[in-house]
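Input (structure):
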């Protein structure tokens, strides 16, 4: 059938009109979504200002459904979840940095959130990602100093705080931080000066936040030195401040408990009643009872709270941890099986897997664990949270599985590679260790220590396809004074029956390097192969003593065979 030119033009015009109308409709819909998204974020901010977290949460969830990459909404969600003491806050802080990696403020907020969760890997990695300009700010040095202090590196912490003080000479906070470091010193003069500085700061007439921080540190110092009367006095002063928190009341409970004060029971009941009116306070109260009394008492109190509180995300996680601690597996399963934990659904699934496994329901447990990994969605923060649970529960197989996922998904996370390497090494699994090293060496050809491990494991397994002898020679040529590289190359020569050359390589190492248990093991082998039995026996005896190295099965067999012929 033929269509004349006139009708062709009509059809073409209709088609164009349809496309235009469709585009206009999509544009209108997209515009509606944007307007609605902006309005929901604005409403959430209003609800947060009016202390209506539930309504704010619903608004932010709606905004993020429209646009998961709305930076302001993600940041507000992190703020809101931190106020509610939810572990999910760390996920959102991490997401903020993904969306806004060059923001110093967002990075430092993530560091502080990771510190609260004791995720020191994320802490160090996030700090390392601060650009050079950011590392020259007082804000950076204050946070970096706090991290160093928490990790026990007092000299580094002091260096950061002094630099912050230099950059902001009018800001008293770095002086407070330096004084706090002084409280941990044994030198009485330094300790007295620290207390004097904090006492002065605690009387600052214009800065309430500074006063409270100084009083808290003086309180903690008094507790450490069993000065209960002084601790009670500092606690009283803190509670008189308008910006004191519920946690400050729990600090007072601590000293009342330590002092066996008759007012403890009344204070405890008063604080419990107060906490039962607010989910965030309830979580703090439950955590206090978990750590100071027992998980059973914390759980018993949680179960007295309104049902809406018990299903609150943070309290639901706390209740699950309590039931795990007391081993009430049936109750754990019954209580969480029908719950939903939002962003922490992967954690709920993990707890459910634990409950099922402890009841010998292995197949169901495996299904729930696979669901936990599915909900983690290969995201770094959820995977690390699951890894911590696996380590806490001694689920070694699952922990290795997560480490492998992190290595493959985030190859720059070297800590995961090092952790899995250590697991394989300590459990004597040479072949998986070789495969892991091979994969890592392909990802990062400049990683010489990994190449060294690859060469050694390949030689132990006679995996000639890895060309370990060529690799050992290459590494030694690049760094002949590196003891590990030298011993690997010497072992290569030993395997090739070039025992005299192997001895020459080893004798170039310093006496201190040869004292290392692992290096000494290979030196003993080389000495034995060269017929120097008296010296070889000395090194064999040394590595058989209290400082015996951890060796792979193939290494042990080599040493045992050589030792048996002495």
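Output (sequence):
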């Amino acid at each position: 059938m033929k269509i004349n030119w006139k009708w062709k033009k009509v059809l073409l015009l209709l088609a164009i009109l349809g496309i235009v109308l469709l585009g206009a409709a999509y544009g209108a819909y997209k515009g509606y979504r944007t307007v609605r998204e902006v309005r929901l974020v604005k409403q959430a901010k209003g609800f947060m200002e009016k202390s209506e977290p539930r309504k704010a949460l619903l608004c932010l969830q709606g905004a993020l459904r429209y646009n998961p990459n709305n930076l302001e909404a993600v940041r507000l969600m992190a703020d809101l979840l931190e106020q509610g003491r939810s572990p999910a806050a760390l996920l959102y802080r991490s997401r903020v940095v993904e969306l806004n990696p060059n923001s110093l403020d967002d990075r430092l907020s993530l560091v502080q959130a990771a510190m609260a969760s004791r995720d020191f890997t994320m802490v160090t990695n996030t700090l390392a990602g601060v650009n050079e300009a950011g590392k020259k700010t007082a804000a950076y040095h204050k946070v970096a100093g706090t991290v160093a202090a928490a990790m026990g590196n007092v000299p580094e912490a002091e260096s950061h705080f002094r630099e912050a003080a230099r950059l902001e000479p009018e800001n008293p906070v770095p002086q407070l931080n330096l004084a706090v470091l002084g409280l941990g010193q044994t030198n009485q003069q330094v300790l007295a000066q620290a207390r004097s500085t904090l006492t002065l700061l605690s009387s600052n007439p214009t800065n309430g936040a500074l006063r409270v921080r100084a009083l808290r540190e003086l309180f903690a110092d008094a507790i450490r030195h069993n000065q209960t009367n002084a601790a009670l006095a500092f606690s009283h002063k803190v509670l008189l401040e308008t910006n004191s928190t519920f946690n400050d009341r729990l600090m007072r409970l601590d000293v009342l408990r330590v002092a066996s004060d008759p007012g403890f029971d009344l204070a405890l009941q008063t604080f419990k009643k107060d906490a039962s009116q607010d989910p965030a306070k309830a979580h703090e109260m439950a955590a206090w009872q978990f750590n100071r009394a027992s998980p059973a008492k914390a759980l018993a109190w949680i179960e007295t709270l309104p049902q809406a509180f018990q299903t609150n995300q943070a309290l639901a996680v706390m209740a699950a941890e309590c039931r795990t601690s007391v081993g009430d597996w049936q109750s754990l399963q019954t209580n969480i099986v029908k719950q939903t934990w939002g962003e922490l659904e992967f954690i709920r699934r993990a707890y459910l897997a634990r409950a099922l496994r402890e009841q010998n329901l292995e197949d169901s447990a495996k299904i729930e664990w696979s669901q936990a990994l599915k909900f983690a969605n290969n995201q770094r923060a959820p995977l690390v949270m699951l890894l911590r649970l696996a380590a806490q529960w001694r689920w070694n197989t699952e922990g290795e599985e997560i480490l492998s996922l992190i290595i493959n998904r985030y190859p720059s996370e070297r800590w995961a590679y090092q952790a899995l390497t250590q697991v394989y090494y300590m459990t004597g699994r040479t072949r998986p260790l070789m495969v892991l090293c091979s994969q890592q060496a392909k990802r990062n050809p400049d990683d010489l220590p990994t190449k060294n491990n690859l060469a050694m494991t390949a030689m132990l397994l006679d995996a000639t396809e890895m060309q370990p002898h060529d690799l050992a020679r290459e590494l030694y040529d690049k760094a002949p004074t590196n003891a590990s590289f030298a011993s690997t190359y010497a072992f290569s020569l030993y395997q090739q029956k070039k025992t005299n050359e192997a001895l020459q390589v080893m004798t170039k190492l310093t006496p201190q390097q040869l004292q290392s248990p692992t290096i000494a093991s290979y030196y003993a082998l080389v000495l034995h192969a060269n017929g120097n039995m008296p010296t070889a026996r000395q090194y064999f005896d040394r590595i058989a003593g209290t400082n015996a190295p951890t060796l792979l099965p193939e290494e042990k067999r080599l040493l045992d065979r050589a030792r048996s012929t002495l």
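Notes: Residues 79 and 89 are 7 Å apart (CA to CA). The chain has a mean pLDDT of 90.
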